[in-house]
Amino acid sequence: FRVASGSLLGPDQPVILNIVDIPEMENRLKGVKMELDDCAFPLLVKTNTTTSLSEGFKDIDIAFLVGSKPRGPGMERGDLLKQNGKIFVDQGKALSDNAKRNVKVMVVGNPANTNCLIAMKNAKSLKPENFNAMTRLDHNRALSQLAQKTGTSTNDIENMAIWGNHSSTMYADLHNTTINGKKALDLVGKEWYEKEFIPLVAQRGAEIIKARGASSAASAANAAIDHVRDWILGSKKWVSMAVPTDGKLYGIPKDLIFSFPCTTSNGNYQVVTGLDINSFSQERIKKTTDELLSERKEVEHLL
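-> structure tokens emitted (303 positions)
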């Protein structure tokens, strides 16, 4: 609904929505279309609903891959990998065969980083840089907690970064972060940062599942919109994006989908380079890298 309203691409960009789901959800798709019609969005040119990936991905500019089995209470990431990997094989192939060559593919369905890798590897005719996974939700969670702790606005915060996997191993890095020009770590203190902030951000998803009995919904959708809007329209601030690795940056191995601090302009992203990574950060970046390598090993047969 926010895509149709203009929140994604701005108030002057008409949109056509292709909404795809499994055959069992066909009636619900019709219901969603009816509600979209009833909103009378001026920018919404047309809504197509389908259970066919080839139809849904035909000539698209942007793909939000949100379709995966959500994590429930007690589920491990390995369980999700086994159940969701096949979905992203099929979606990668369908994107390769049907989408525009410059399509921007945003993977939201968890485990997002490795699902993105599966889709990317199966989209043989598309470039790796067409594919991102979402760590913007972790980024937004970190901004919110930091703003609340310091009594400031998220707008006051600069140069905050999420490294690695969208999981409990992800690393929320404040070593380059400033708040109204002051070093964030000086304002919050090392103990709060290490003992409270990092675990709080890393476990926020599990806490939401515990509280509402389901995975993050509105906040995840909001983060997906933030990510793709900045990717397309550009951002003046650092943003956290999980992008394909080439083996040349910060010692991260090739062929992972890894979150880095990035800048965006003219429809492209650039990883922020030249940062000094201290031993504390190196240790946490290694932990999340090792997890992604382990996940990749589990799905090698799908790549």
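The first strand starts at residue 15 and ends at 20.
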